[in-house]
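Notebook, student rotation project (T.W.).
Task set for the rotation: take a protein with a known small-molecule partner, predict the structure of the complex, and write up what can be learned from the model alone. Partner molecule chosen: flavin mononucleotide. Sequence and SMILES entered below by T.W., checked by me.
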Amino acid sequence: MKKGTIEKRLGIVADIVMFALLLTQMLYVFTGNNIHEITGIAFFVCLVVHILLKRKWIKAMLSGKIFKGSKAQIFSAVLTCLLFLCIITLALSSMGVSRFIFPSIKFLGSSDLHRYLATAVLSLAAAHGGMHFYIRAKKKKKAAVLIIVMTLACVALGLFGVPYINRHFRTVSIDYSSSVHGEKADWKGKKPLVVYFTRLGNTDFDDDVDAVSGASLMYADGKLTGSDQLIADMLEDIIGCDKKAVTLTGEKYPSSYGATVSAASKEIKANARPEIEPIEITDYDSIILVYPLWWGTVPPPVSTFLESSDFEGKTIYLIATQGSSGFSSSTEDIKESAKGANVEEVMSIYCDDIPNSRQRLLDWVKELS
Ligand SMILES: Cc1cc2nc3c(=O)[nH]c(=O)nc-3n(C[C@H](O)[C@H](O)[C@H](O)COP(=O)(O)O)c2cc1C
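Predicted structure of the complex:
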């Protein structure tokens, strides 16, 4: 076989392997962090192979020859450059968010940025591969439609599919002490009260919880723990303040994650205010409210708390946890419910980052003081 043919075939294999690695990486909820990071390294090794194999094309592009070709070739070259830029930024952000291979690198260490870059790379890679096919295709219109569909499917997978899968299938095990305990910080003035809502304690979990709900569960030292409770525990450890859980007195949410999602949807549509155990806030000037985002707003029991207390002259600091949507409309809804309160957004934590958020919380408390 000719050297050129071997290189061409190797190039196709490298492309397919890279795309498969990218997809595997995006489904990291099933592989865990360490495999995610190792496959990340494998991806960049394949990228180097790919670049070596495409050296002639790169030379032609740098000399400007490519830009004298057809419109499709020019478009494909622009797409390739954009893809390359995104991959390099993704590589930097991978090191920034790494906890296993590069734990001490912090540059571009935002997991939101990392997820958006990964979506951009997957989508541009689909379009880039598609353009090779388009240039050779006889039926150009059909090829163009196929590329658009593939690219949009990758955008949808990155922006909605991955967060959805992550929300429904995430099971995390953590070491409680190293997540929660550490450096302390002073709170300016009178200490706040942390009020949090978490599914644990408000959900009818069966004995065999893994088999029944199997979704979005966190185990601290082998014991089932609420994600938002973990944030409240971290704040309690940092500030040395009181904390109270928003706890339902009546019917709890179903054990299955999917059923909780539908039950919450019905409640939110009906503007329901389920009964909760009373929470006394008179002794506090500030409240740190920790809540999961449910359908873009606060869980109904949190609305019950906000509407049943007097917040006149108090400040509510908001810490939302979420599966993709930032604060969504929760801040506005909280301002509407907690009459008289001064409401301040603090941070919105992506569900995957919950066990590692202590440092962010500590930095915020220090900054505030
Ligand atoms: C009923 C329900 C609705 C949710 N709606 C949203 C949403 O609209 N946007 C979002 O980013 N995450 C949403 N999530 C994901 C949660 O915010 C995320 O899982 C949570 O912050 C982590 O806590 P958990 O492990 O107790 O679920 C929803 C979760 C549930 C259970």
